[in-house]
Amino acid sequence: MSAGGELQTAIASALAGVEVTGVFDGPPARAAYPYVALDATTESDWGHKSGVGREVLVAITLWDDQPVRLHGLADQVEAALEGLTAVEGWQLVTMQLVRRRVVRDVAGPWAAAIDYRARMLSSRQ
Description:
Blueprint: H1 3-14, E1 23-24, E2 35-45, E3 53-64, H2 67-82, E4 86-87, E5 90-104, E6 110-122
Parallel strand pairs: 1-2
Antiparallel strand pairs: 2-3, 3-6, 4-5, 5-6
């Protein structure tokens, strides 16, 4: 599996304790609020002379119809990812928060977009 795929699996496991109805690989067709949509598929090379490395951009979007609860859930997500250390087949070098913002479409639910940058080295040398 790709670095992004392995990271996405590890993040989904780390978010199991967050009080949401589900963690989905992208926006679900139907889901009860609050839920998480996760995407860790944007990768670029972060290797070195003798090893394979990847920089993976992670987009986590929390959806909810209650803004106060949404902020608390975003805090839970950040706390869960602070403890993330193991990614199958990869050494997680850094997991850096890039930005966090809350937005709302006038006719829709609230969304907390939380973006991370992960830098990883392959353990399979």
